[in-house]
Write a structure and sequence with these properties.
289 residues, alpha/beta, Rossmann fold, 2 domains, 8-stranded mixed β-sheet, 11 helices, globular, binds 1,4-dihydronicotinamide adenine dinucleotide, 3-hydroxybutyryl-CoA dehydrogenase activity, 3-hydroxybutyryl-CoA dehydrogenase, oxidoreductase, NAD+ binding
Length: 289
């Protein structure tokens, strides 16, 4: 089966790699040529590392790269059996894209969103065949994180859901079915982790580095909240918090933070922009004031 992935950012590029590693022909599509080139170059580096470590043969690495076609034209999804969308976390944009996608793909193609927080029912409602729409939520980085949340909308056909779940299981992922509620399982549990860390910083209790140090060295977490937010991207993380906050009728437990909003507005997005709560520029001191 051919797989389409829309959006070649942090998530889309990783999902394309996962699908190609599972043996599928993949079309990775983005509006931006630059993002596509970046995704292709990054995959080249990742493959080289895996070959050096002996985890892949040179032949396998070449095949994985060759199976992915890069395109700026969604028309190239016409032969896909599954399209996974991983573009900006905005309900209007996603709905428009799904309505357009439906006019491109064949009648049996399943359409999935990698959204972290938005309503799958609402995305499905933009389609003429809402029963073929579902959420398939990978975690970052998609090639390394085993968990994938599978989210049926109220409209989703059970047969299509089961077949898709089985397909993702066959990609050596661990799938969990979750209801279509804001943030699903993991992003809902994670909101207070980020939110409380940001409050601690805003109250002047401790700085970013100290909070992360306490959580990793003493708390046993693999990554501190600020390192993790920089990894996810502060733009995406802020938008997800805002979306969960609104979707839970402005429950103060999920209230977004101005610190995070200002970081997103300033373009301090984290690793992908070179600066976030920490500095990722080459040779720079990691911690920022
Ligand atoms: P990103 O900002 O890294 O990448 C988004 C990509 O979509 C960009 O390359 C952009 O050029 C492209 N794009 C935007 N509009 C488009 C359109 N109409 N057609 C084609 N391409 C378009 O975003 P990221 O982090 O990859 O997130 C994507 C989705 O995945 C979001 O819905 C997000 O909530 C979700 N997600 C993000 C995670 C993370 O840790 N960053 C984890 C799991 C899900």
């Amino acid at each position: 089966m051919e797989i389409g992935v829309l959006g070649a950012g942090s998530m889309g590029a990783g999902i394309a790699q996962v699908a190609s590693q599972a043996g599928h022909k993949v079309v990775l599509c983005d509006l931006s040529e630059e993002q596509l080139s970046k995704a292709k170059a990054n995959l080249g580096k990742v493959m080289l590392r895996l070959v050096e470590k002996g985890r892949l043969s040179e032949l396998e690495a070449n095949d994985i790269q060759r199976r992915i076609n890069y395109s700026t034209d969604m028309g190239d999804f016409k032969n896909a059996g599954l399209v996974i969308e991983a573009i900006v976390e905005n309900i209007k944009v996603k709905k428009d894209v799904f309505a357009t996608l439906e006019n491109i793909v064949n009648d049996t193609c399943v359409l999935a969103s990698n959204t972290s927080s938005l309503s799958i029912a609402s995305i499905a409602a933009a389609c003429k065949q809402p029963e073929r729409v579902m959420g398939i939520h990978f975690f970052n980085p998609a090639p390394l994180m085993p968990l994938v949340e599978i989210i049926p909308a109220v409209q989703t056909d059970e047969n299509k859901l089961n077949k898709t779940k089985y397909l993702i299981d066959s990609w050596k992922k661990v799938t969990v079915l979750t209801k279509d509620t804001p943030g699903f399982i993991v992003n809902r549990v994670a909101r207070p982790f980020y939110g409380e860390a940001l409050k601690i910083y805003e109250e002047g209790v401790a700085d970013f580095a100290t909070i992360d140090w306490a959580m990793t060295e003493l708390g046993g977490f693999r990554m501190g909240p600020f390192t993790l937010m920089d990894y996810i991207g502060n733009d995406i993380n802020y938008t997800v918090t805002e979306s969960v906050f609104k979707a839970f009728y402005y429950d103060p437990r999920y209230r977004p933070s101005f610190t995070q909003k200002r970081h997103a507005e300033a373009g301090w997005l984290g690793r992908k922009s070179g600066r976030g709560y920490f500095n990722y520029a080459e040779g720079a001191e990691k911690a920022l004031p």
